[in-house]
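Intended use. Records like the one below are meant for learning the mapping from a protein sequence to its folded structure. Do not use them to infer anything beyond what is encoded.
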Amino acid sequence: MAIGLIIIGDEILSGKRTDQHFPKVVSMLKARGLHLNWAEYVGDEPERIVALLKRTFASGDIVFCFGGIGATPDDHTRQAAADALGLPLVLHPQGKLNIEQRITEMGLEAGVPADLNSPENLHRLKMAEFVQGADLIPNPYNKIAGFAVREHYFVPGFPVMSWPMIEWVLDTHYAHLFNQVAHAEHALLVYETAESLLTPLMVRLEAQYPLIKVFSLPSVGDAVTRRHIELGVKGEPAQAAAAYTEMCAELDSMHAEYVKI
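Structure written out for the chain above:
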């Protein structure tokens, strides 16, 4: 199953906030022997969010979606998920109890008894309105749950809440996928060599070893490092090791200057 990431919010696209979710999700997955297949960013536009979710629901992928599940006017994700599936939003009973428990706790902390029927607190219950049939994702930070439906996992945009929630999803629902595919990666830096001269080697190695991918990351260099290309192979361990050995031998025959990393 492919794994995807959706990050929602105008603040990310405008540059007011820097996205932290992408590198964190990559790290979470890598620690479990998994990898991210795709990622998309979208602003707080209901039509775009609905169109994106219609496509990803149809894909069958595992999808982690950050942002837009609060109760303010710019939080459209819950309704967009419902619209994408053609299902209604309904008040989740346990989600409602969780929010009421949090409201009560906040009142006790402030020394003021909470009125669960006040307009403000009734409005907070919107955060427990999820797509019909959705399951809860527990939120250890403040008890206000995210929701899961059809291999899609919707969590808040706040890292302190969302990251533990995503880890819970992975460890609870996908532990059977952990470390199922053996993977190895080998790389080196080739100095002062044109990428076009290395391309035939890369093509040949991928054709000879179908379970690996060859990658190249050119750099123009800076005050510290000369112009170079990070060249490497990744994939099935035995084929990756063999391809890397051949890569080094070919570079030696070309009299290329390189250093293993």
